[in-house]
Here is the input.
Amino acid sequence: MLRAQCGDRDALELLLRSVQPSVHRYLCGLVSASHADDVLQEVLVVIASKLAWLEHPELFRAWTFRIASRAGFRHLKKERRWHEQPVDHFRLEELPAVDTRPSGDLLRELLAMDGISPASRAVLALHFQEEMSLSEVAAVLEIPVGTAKSRLAYGLAAIRKQLHK
Here is the structure.
């Protein structure tokens, strides 16, 4: 990380290659697989150009996903696809706890379902695909933890609704 920040091109390439698969997977869930490559390229350019300004190297992963989230949301807004889905009102306490983690393929299928808002999709992808805690998700997306919890609950409810159709 430090070598990359000091201008070592090989270190930068290695660093970018290390985050590329997880960021691409996240963007596929957020903006769709057909647009993920373009947004990923934008994200990698931003990371390379701003890496020197990152003061705490241990925050690199969260910082990277924050950049990816911003780029993804910008893309969605540009495509006029950004809109909040109507949400059925329910109580968070009524939602059952998840017993097991879905497989990677099943998780990608669930995240690709219609009816999940981009905001909820981002929280679901970061929490389940990238295995971030809700506080980490909140930090990446720059939202309160309570909002991350709500978006997670709304996203899970939307998935349940689609599965029960």
Residues 92-163 form a domain with the Arc Repressor Mutant, subunit A fold (CATH 1.10.10.10).
